[in-house]
Amino acid sequence: IYRTGEKSYLLVVNASNLQKDFDWLNSHVESGVQLVDKSSEFGLLAIQGPNAQQVMAKLTEHDLESMPYYTHVTAVVAGVELLFSRTGYTGEDGFEIYIPTEHCATLWKAVTEAGAQHSMELIGLGARDTLRLEMKMALYGNDIDKDTTPIEAGLGWIVNLDTDFIGKDVMARQKAEKPSRRLVCFEIEGRVVPRHGHEIFDGDQKIGQVTSGTFSPSLKKPIALGYVARRKAKIGSVVELSIRDKRFPATVVKPPFYKNASHR
Fold first, then answer.
1. 68-79: per-residue pLDDT in tens?
2. 133-253: which CATH topology?
3. How many whole angstroms separate alpha carbon 115 and alpha carbon 58?
4. Which of 132, 166, 183, 190 is most buried, judged by most C-beta within 10 A?
């Protein structure tokens, strides 16, 4: 969510949930508030990695050194005035550039040319999904959905219980009483890769399921996220994952999996 003015905001939502999110927001719009879908008017490029600032510096004269993580500005980039932020979905330092559609081709050419000088590579959603998982960044539809709360998912730090909002009573109660389940990080022994939907056991008792899993190229081991009963959510707890009708031991570890990310 970007605050673009005293009374104006830009919401960037998961593209596959665009209509669902818009409809939900629209159903709660109060008098005097206008909600407009401008998705077709913008494209997005994300420059991510330890050299992101060096690449971005070739495209804009804005003072990037004084720009903290999770901030945004409107400035000229490759000759186009637009909004960009020091954010990303990778855990690395980086910038997300919101481009008016008529300038997307221009920015693509400028970004790729600037990046080539720093060995920048083009990556797709598969690589990005691995990076976000290594940092325990939740994916809607897997790790969080309409049936989970930020408290259960370990996202209580983004919830301000001193303000009024939809669902506040539920989250305040969960925080006070502790949720019955938690989203935790697992490292798995061996080379077997856990996937979304695999069941998690404590002895003969099913206590949860995997929400995201992959083989981590950074850690060179299988990793996963999953919800488990609170009693097994402590760091160091050992559970078993059921993968192809076999059980594999997994240990709860402190997030994030990858500890050397370059984000500020």
1. 999 999 999 999
2. Elongation Factor Tu (Ef-tu); domain 3 (2.40.30)
3. 9
4. 183
Per DSSP, what are the bridge partners of residue 83?
74, 98
CA–CA separation, 114 and 178 (whole Å): 49
Q: How does pLDDT run across 143-179, given as a tens digit for each residue?
A: 999 999 999 999 999 999 999 999 999 999 999 999 9
Determine whether domain 2-132 maps to CATH 3.40.140.10.
Answer: no
Q: How far apart are CA 112 and CA 97, in angstroms?
A: 13
Give residue limits of the domains in the chain.
2-132, 133-253
